[in-house]
Write a sequence for this structure.
């Protein structure tokens, strides 16, 4: 596609979620990053919560954290740029141990991942000897190194059931643990962590839209009262698939704001209501930081080899199911 053709097409898509003048302002930097990707042989993977100028403009793949890592592992790219938060870049590095993994904003953390430490996991094992530990992928490599198996919000129920244990420890999100506990026969021992984006939602946010044509979707990291009042509860991937399949005229997406914008780019026929919540950590990733990361390569993710070897195992056990 000729340069001016892709610019026109991309601008038209971005204009679905921003003023035309703003969309065109991003194009020179997007073009510069695309050229840097070509010269360095890099691929860019982006989370669903990244802004449209990243997902539509420069990303080779957009999805949830595990799908990002799996896509990266399936490519032959030597350099992988992760437009997400640190635990996502670590997960990518664990599944791509011989590649260079760049995180454009090294200060892009995660309140949920930060809510539990490796020492916390060891203490849990002492209190509950013999009880298997399941870690959400939204955890650090150091925490993954201490657990038995990982899960995502999409496969958490399947993972817990596969253990065939009477009791299972789930960490770190207490609302995901509650979601799973209602759907499995074993006892779930939760950790008290939560995502600062999702825990702020309440049933009051949903009340104005009840008994209307608005379809309400919630992430399982939302509080129980929100999940109970929603029409659908699922992972970011599941929510997207639900919307694409159902194509409601109006929807309320109880998750990070940029996800609705990204869906709108491809499905402008769906009108998204508010509220939504912004993730300050995700928003630390910018086009400027992606460019600089590709230029200087100083934002590479490194994991202590002794931790990486142990952290890779629970991911591999999950992927093997």
């Amino acid at each position: 596609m000729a340069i001016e053709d892709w610019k026109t097409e991309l601008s038209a898509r971005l204009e679905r979620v921003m003023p035309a003048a703003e969309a065109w302002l991003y194009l020179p930097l997007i073009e510069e990053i695309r050229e840097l990707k070509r010269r360095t042989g890099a691929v860019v993977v982006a989370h669903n919560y990244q802004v449209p100028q990243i997902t539509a403009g420069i990303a080779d793949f957009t999805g949830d954290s595990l799908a990002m890592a799996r896509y990266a592992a399936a490519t032959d790219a030597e350099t992988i740029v992760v437009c997400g938060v640190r635990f996502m870049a670590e997960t990518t590095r664990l599944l791509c141990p011989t590649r260079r993994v760049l995180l454009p904003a090294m200060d892009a953390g995660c309140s949920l991942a930060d809510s539990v430490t490796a020492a916390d996991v060891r203490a849990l094992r002492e209190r509950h000897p013999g009880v298997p530990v399941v870690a959400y992928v939204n955890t650090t490599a150091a925490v993954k190194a201490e657990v038995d198996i990982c899960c995502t919000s999409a496969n958490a129920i399947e993972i817990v059931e596969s253990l065939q244990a009477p009791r299972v420890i789930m960490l770190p999100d207490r609302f995901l643990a509650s979601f799973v506990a209602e759907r499995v026969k074993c006892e779930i021992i939760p950790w008290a962590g939560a995502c600062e984006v999702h825990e702020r939602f309440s049933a009051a946010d949903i009340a104005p839209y009840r008994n209307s044509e608005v379809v309400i979707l919630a992430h399982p990291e939302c509080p129980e009262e929100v999940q109970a009042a929603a029409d659908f509860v699922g992972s970011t991937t599941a929510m997207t698939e639900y919307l694409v399949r159902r194509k409601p005229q109006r929807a309320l997406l109880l998750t990070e704001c940029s996800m609705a914008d990204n869906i709108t780019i491809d499905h402008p026929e769906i009108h998204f209501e508010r509220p939504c919540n912004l993730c300050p950590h995700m928003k630390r990733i910018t086009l400027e930081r992606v460019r600089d990361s590709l230029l200087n390569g100083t934002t590479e993710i490194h994991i202590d080899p002794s931790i990486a070897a142990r952290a890779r195992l629970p991911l591999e056990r999950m992927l093997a199911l």
